[in-house]
Amino acid sequence: MKIAVVGIGVAGAYxxxxxxxxRDIQITGFERMPEKDHDAVCAWATSKNEMSRLxxxxxxxxEDYILHNGKHMIVDSGSGTNKxxxxxxxxxxxxxxxxxxxxxxxxxxxxxxxxxxxxxLESDFxxxxxxxxxxxxxxxxxxxxxxxxxxxxxxxxxxxxxxYDDYYLKAFPSMTGYFWYFPLGNGYAHIGxxxxxxxxxxxFVEQFLKKYECEVIRKVGRPVRISPPLFCEPFTDGxxxxxVGESIGTVYSLLGExxxxxxxxxxxxxEHYFDLKAYREAVLKKFQIYVLVYRFIQLKISGKFSIxxxxxxxxxxxxxxxxxxxxxxxxxxxxxxxxxxxx
Length: 343
Ligand SMILES: Cc1cc2nc3c(=O)[nH]c(=O)nc-3n(C[C@H](O)[C@H](O)[C@H](O)COP(=O)(O)OP(=O)(O)OC[C@H]3O[C@@H](n4cnc5c(N)ncnc54)[C@H](O)[C@@H]3O)c2cc1C
Prior knowledge:
Layout lengths: L1 E5 L3 H10 L6 E6 L13 E3 H9 L9 E4 L2 E5 L7 E5 L3 E4 L1 H9 L4 E3 L5 H7 L2 E4 L16 E10 L10 E5 L5 E9 L2 E8 L5 H11 L3 E11 L15 E3 L15 H14 L3 H11 L2 H13 L9 H13 L1 H4 L5 H8 L2
The structure holds flavin-adenine dinucleotide (FAD).
């Protein structure tokens, strides 16, 4: 079977690594960025507990890529007397995402600087994997989807002038998004923001850059899709293309977190690539809770959330995250959840 993997991000890299081992598969990757400019536009935060398991399956050691081990995350809710929520971290780290992608794909066949036309791929391959993330170029357009525009800078601070030594988030009113400061070690950090309302992201980041003197290394921007897989159907074009990762909505919308979910989606694809119906069912099942979380975010953004009416939903989200603290890399408390719901 000849498979094309289009888009070498988290999902694409995982697939290149794991499927290259399969005897019955010939796999070729395509990445639109030239190799020297290939980047991973993302804040690079994840949970080392789950990533260690995933990366081990690719014959690598996740610890080798860690840049910062988190202890606490301050969430500034911006209002009220208890506006700072101090979350104890249990495995949240920042890691060198692009280096890991390069190492996962080392020795595999990838054509960089190429965004091939679907028609051309269809004549050469049996299956085309759309792992283009937000772009979803090889799948039908979605009519009703939600995405958050984001901007991010990689910066460097002089020793002793770092604004924070650990994770910091500032939530925007009605949870339309947040500003982040994620340390990358040795004075480097990712600072950025995403805002559904498009009001706060640029403004807040610019203010922060002015307030804390730093050297700007790089500025990037792209939206993140937060509609869950249930609302990103179809996962295939009915011909040869099938989506894996953010192209089919695998982002945990409460956190804007997509690294682990995209890797899980790639794992599900590996288990079911010979039966796309079973793949679809497995994805919908695995990411079922994302629908509830997305509805919560939608209600918050539209100002329609009521803690009394939606108490049961909030409790279910809490129970889910509490039962998977290790996977989220943080201590989950009901009191924090309630405070977050009041932002
Ligand atoms: C600013 C920002 C910060 C984020 N921070 C975090 C974070 O800290 N932690 C976290 O877990 N998640 C984070 N996310 C979400 C996370 O980055 C994504 O959900 C995740 O990377 C999706 O993985 P993917 O492999 O599906 O797609 P991506 O990682 O987006 O990879 C898609 C790849 O496809 C390539 N491509 C696109 N179109 C084409 C084409 N036509 N032809 C060929 N190649 C193409 C792109 O260049 C890219 O390399 C963030 C997202 C954004 C926007």
